[in-house]
Amino acid sequence: MSEIIYRAIGTIHSPYKDIKGMPIQPTGAVGIDGYLEVNPEYRDGLKDLEGFSHIILPYHFHLSKNYSLTVKPFLDKEERGLFSTRAPKRPNPIGISVVRLTGVKENRVNVKDMDILDGTPLLDIKPYVPEFDHRDVSSTGWLTSTGVDVSKTKADGRFG
N or C: which end of the chain has fewer CB within 10 A? Predict the structure, then answer.
């Protein structure tokens, strides 16, 4: 397998200093403020970003060590294949969150609906565009049968 190297473009800041008790998705973090501190050399790339209401944040699960190809996800009691979950312990520990953009000033991007651990390395910023990103889905796999409210589910430390 060939090695791929990414460099962080900045750092994500949030009120979450510990993995345990964090929301597991942005829908469980509605209204929670955070911000992105973009490295100065990437500041010009923020031009025109303020015209978007939401942005997609790919980031590195920097505390994630090891992985298993089967996991017991937060929303289920059964072991599931890793790639049918959003568990953070992955061969390539990359996370994504869609957050609300509330402002850009110099190299700081203010957001809401923050579900990411403070100090997480930011890999990229992409605008959320409904015409590109929204899909009408017909199936959500094993999640359909759980009946769990993701907006009320918190991390319990199992992936820390």
Answer: N
